[in-house]
Write a structure and sequence with these properties.
- The protein has 501 residues and is an alpha/beta fold.
- It has three domains: 3-108, Orthogonal Bundle (Arc Repressor Mutant, subunit A), CATH 1.10.10; 112-140 and 384-491, Aspartate Aminotransferase, domain 1 (Alpha-Beta Complex), CATH 3.90.1150.10; 143-380, Type I PLP-dependent aspartate aminotransferase-like (Major domain) (Aspartate Aminotransferase, domain 2, 3-Layer(aba) Sandwich), CATH 3.40.640.
- The protein has 18 helices and 16 strands.
- The strands form four sheets. An eight-stranded mixed beta sheet has the order 4-11-10-9-8-5-6-7, sandwiched between helices. It has a four-stranded antiparallel beta sheet with strand order 12-13-16-15. Strands 1-2 form a two-stranded antiparallel sheet.
- Strand 6 and strand 7 form a beta hairpin.
- The structure holds pyridoxal-5'-phosphate.
- Pyridoxal-5'-phosphate is lined by residues 134, 198-200, 224, 268, 273, 301, 303, 330, 332, 337, 342.
Length: 501
């Protein structure tokens, strides 16, 4: 069987992703000599057609083959098997890097990892409306205020700004974060704050500090996929606890605790990603009582908590139980994601462990950015900035909701979010999740497939649609394309069974 025959018969819904199967098929043909040095590979569109995959998958496969050193791309000419004696264009003396495939530990990115990688690529893809992307819109960035803050920092404190600084972060930034927390009814001692590179680093450091291989961690199901990855990286096992419109199901958590000892529970108690819902007061009390009785950490993520559409701000769990809650947050959704300013608030020995993990990871967050952001916050610009962000997200949600009502209503349902950046939509009747993802991209729209946010496999088909990044017109057009993709799929007989996670 030729390699082309093998590529036209990929296994759908199996263990290996379609991209991986393309990579393996072509790599095997190169290694066996079926594809010879300098031989031209089919163009990506032809490969996509041959294999019955979308164009992005073919592009991704060629990129991976380039990374593996097996092929090279020449603009305007195409992709070629690397010549046996070919010197790299840089003129550097180099031998093949193919051996690295065997030396590196096994790594098969999970579904959530692949979806996050797609999301970052789709943010800037042409001809695609990325409803998958949870970025803030550039429209909300306080460009002038940030410019002034950086200018002042470099003008007045360059020596300090460009130097190493404290692992825990600059005291003046910690004081500003503490003031911001106090305004959110969650007073903090600045000494309990560690500055991180985004909430993401807060999550990974906290997991590394608290967990060891074999530990069990519970989390909301669905949740933000990076939490799942942060837990799994430590060798701990993650167990999903269902959520509904009232937040985490604390009865299900209690049932889990009767069977298993857990080390931590990861939760977004307010404006949860992806549902946009809160943990209701009775369940907050139940959760804190369980944490105290069973002695586990609550890893609380508050990145969306400022983006409430209406009504009063809701306090963090940390404000109620600082001894149990390790809190992570950032300015990514309200000020700027690219600044990568986040923080951890924790009390007791766990904070020392997290600081030690930060030291080992990257010594400290960039001094110049910390100084500039401390200046920005000290200028008093934050409350108006948060309001600007809130109204932007609210406008996006209104546009998305109307578009869903108009184009998707007969097959879509969702519980309205109270804020945040996403709508968690369930489609009925269920379509095949991966087929819909591919069909949507063919129609020029992407969304985050629900399976990537799930810990436990579930029969229903859910989609996360994000409304923070695109303008209202683009959101409406994106939903229209998604509805067209779903309609197209419903006309076709299913290609395969429900996908594995
Ligand atoms: C729930 C949640 N937590 C954490 C993050 C990470 O944010 P950052 O690292 O930019 O602060 C995100 C980003 O989308 C998120 O949705």
């Amino acid at each position: 069987m030729s390699y082309k025959d093998a590529l036209s018969d990929l296994e759908r819904g199996g263990e290996r992703s379609l991209t991986q199967q393309l990579v393996d098929g072509i790599a095997t043909a190169i290694e066996s000599g079926e594809l010879e040095p300098d031989e031209k590979l089919p163009p990506t569109r032809e490969l996509a057609e041959l294999a019955g995959v979308n164009h992005l998958t073919a592009v991704r496969a060629y990129r991976r083959l380039r990374e593996l050193g097996l092929v090279s791309a020449h603009v305007g000419r195409g992709t070629f098997v690397r010549g046996a004696g070919r010197q790299p264009e840089t003129g550097r003396v180099s031998d093949s890097i193919a051996w690295q495939r065997y030396a590196l530990p096994e790594y098969e990115p999970g579904y959530g990892d692949r979806v996050l990688a797609d999301m970052h690529r789709q943010a800037t893809a042409r001809d695609l409306l990325p409803l998958s992307v949870g970025y803030p819109s550039a429209r909300i960035f306080p460009v002038e205020a940030i410019e002034e803050a950086f200018e002042a920092t470099l003008r007045e404190r360059a020596g300090e700004a460009l130097q190493y600084s404290e692992v825990q972060g600059l005291a003046e930034l910690a004081e500003q974060i503490a003031a911001l927390s106090a305004a959110r009814d969650a007073p903090e001692d600045p000494a309990d704050i560690l500055i991180t590179n985004g909430a993401s680093q807060g999550l990974t450091l906290a997991c590394r500090a608290i967990l060891r291989p074999g530990d069990v961690v519970a989390c909301e199901d669905p949740t933000f996929p990076s939490v799942i990855r942060a837990v799994q990286e430590t060798g701990a096992r993650i167990v999903g606890v269902p959520v509904d419109e009232h937040g985490l199901d604390t009865d299900a958590l209690a049932a889990l605790l009767a069977r298993e000892e857990i080390k931590a529970l990861a939760i977004q108690s307010r404006l949860h990603n992806p549902t946009g819902r809160d943990l209701v007061p009775a369940r907050r009390e139940a959760l804190l009582a369980l944490a105290r009785r069973h002695g586990f950490f609550i890893l609380e993520d508050g990145v969306y908590a400022e983006l409430r559409f209406d009504g009063e701000h809701v306090r963090s769990l940390r404000a109620q139980a600082p001894a149990h809650v390790v809190y992570v947050d950032s300015l990514s959704k309200t000020v700027s994601a690219g600044l990568r300013i986040g923080w951890v608030a924790a009390s007791g020995p766990v904070l020392d462990r997290i600081i030690a993990a930060k030291r080992a990871d990257d010594i400290h967050s960039p001094t110049v950015i910390q100084l500039a952001v401390a200046g920005f916050l000290a200028s008093g610009a934050y409350p108006a900035q948060a309001e600007r962000a809130r109204s932007h997200y609210r406008r996006g949600y209104d546009a998305l909701r109307e578009a869903i009502d108009e184009h998707l209503a007969p097959i879509a349902s969702f519980v309205p979010p109270l804020g945040g950046g996403h709508v968690w939509v369930t489609l009925d009747p269920a379509l095949d999740e991966r087929e819909l993802v591919e069909e949507a991209v063919r129609h020029g729209v992407s969304y985050a497939p629900g399976g990537a946010m799930r810990v436990e496999r579930r029969p229903e088909l859910s989609l996360r649609l994000s409304f923070g990044y695109l303008e209202p017109d683009a959101l409406v057009e994106g939903v229209r394309r998604l509805a067209a993709a779903a309609a197209e799929l419903r006309r076709r007989p299913p290609r395969r069974q429900a996908m594995p996670l």
